[in-house]
Amino acid sequence: MACCKGCSVSGVRRRSTSPSPEQNVRAELPEPEREVYLVCALQTPQVSAEEAQLSLEELQRLVQSASGEIADALIVRLREITAGTFLTRGRVQQLKACAEAFELTGIVFDQDFSPVQVRNLTDEIGVRIIGRSELILDIFARRARTHEGKLQVELAQLQYLLPRLIGKGFVLSRLGGGIGTRGPGETKLEMDRRRIAARIAHLRHELNALRRHRDTQRKRRVRSQVLTIALIGYTNAGKSTLLRTLTQAEVHVADQLFATLDPTARKTILPDGRLAVFTDTVGFIHRLPPALLDAFKATLEEICYADLLLHVVDASSPLFEREVATTEQILADLGAGQKPILRVYNKIDRGLSEAAAERLRSSEEEAVAISALYKVGILDLLNAITRITSPNRQRIRLSIPYERCDLLGQLYAKATVEKIAYENAAIEVEAIADLQGLGSAFSPYVVREQSKPTSSE
């Protein structure tokens, strides 16, 4: 581990003019407390130099997403692991020197330590020790906006905290401020084990009630045969930007990790006239904390019930392969690994990474390359969605006698009615439908079956 970079404080030039009243008011306001962190990736014998570097870069982005100021970023190489502190004595002393030089708020690691190791490192170095899971939990706490989102974050925080209450006052005594101490659950962190367990049970009860409500909404969509499409993928792959482009809806978009936490559903009309509901889901990340995956399981269940998954990937990312593999693994863990998937290679305006370009050339999977930001390839994407979700739909003509006008309600529910005319002898209808899905009641009234519509029709 190299020594930390040097630092200096530059002077501030003062104006000779008298301060304005506004400046006086600002001067009286307390300066926001700086949160300065050292970011460390651990390279053990099982971790390659490339993996450690990639982990360090992602960890820096996570700290920035938590509004932390990064004093320095280091790769700490370890030939052996010490049980009490994980790090060797020499590494601990080097980190202590960095903490004193930079007046650090804490040190963030890409590793989750045991409670005993955290306590020992804190005592040795003298600053807060933050693991990767605690950092991600903090970001989720910042992003939660809805009631359900806040409940889920609090549940994840408490599940993470409960096994770490290993001694009287430990962990609890260090919750002064900074990364890992914010969020809807922060006032609950002083509970003892019994009260935390009771709070967890209460949160699960509330989330189960919300889950039942969501089940009711889902069943209503199924009855009305509304197509549901879930946008999934690694965090910051561009899912929210794509949702806004597809539906022209006002949704929050930001170039940061976990900008979207609460699920967002918006509807649009597909090229064949069908109504589709697109749902934006929380982004995934490598080594997603189990507590978060468990707490957000109810929300992520929407993925399992979707008719189609749009796997949005950042085609420009140097971590392309790892991000794709992470998403596929989480889908498998959720039981959604066999769902129909359309791979969407986003951000092609930034250029394709070598891995993405090779996969596009060689893979036989269904895929579309787009730029959601600049609306490139969106029509190709919509046509692909239409083709995948309606393989048996075709344009048909029906001549329905007036005594069977009761069929019109079923027709509007099951097909896309393009034209209807009330003639003297019968009701003439042109529609796009799956004949088998319509049922035998319509068979006697089919006048002519036309070829399946193409994307240009």
Notes on the protein architecture:
A hairpin with a 5-residue loop joins strand 6 and strand 7. The model is unreliable at 6-18, 167-176 and 451-457 (pLDDT under 50). The termini are far apart. This protein has helices spanning 21-28, 49-65, 89-102, 115-125, 132-143, 147-161, 193-223, 239-247, 290-295, 297-305, 320-334, 354-362, 378-389, 407-414, 435-438, and strands spanning 36-43, 69-77, 106-109, 128-130, 227-232, 264-269, 275-280, 308-314, 341-346, 367-369, 394-400, 416-422, 427-433, 446-449. The strands form three sheets. Strands 6-7-5-8-9-10 form a six-stranded mixed β-sheet, with helices on both faces. It is of the alpha/beta class and 457 residues long.
How is the largest sheet built, in terms of strand order? 6-7-5-8-9-10
Residue share in helices? 25-40%
The average pLDDT value, as a whole number, equals 81
CATH class of the largest domain: Alpha Beta
Output the CATH homologous superfamily of the largest domain. P-loop containing nucleotide triphosphate hydrolases
Structural class: alpha/beta
Supply Rg. 28 Å
Which architecture name of the largest domain does CATH use? Answer: 3-Layer(aba) Sandwich
N-to-C terminal Cα separation, in Å?
A: 63 Å
Number of helices: 15
Instruction: Name the beta content range.
Output: 15-25%
CATH T-level topology of the largest domain: Rossmann fold
How many strands appear in the DSSP assignment? 14
Please give the largest β-sheet.
6 strands, mixed
The domain count comes to 4
Low-confidence blocks of residues: 6-18, 167-176, 451-457
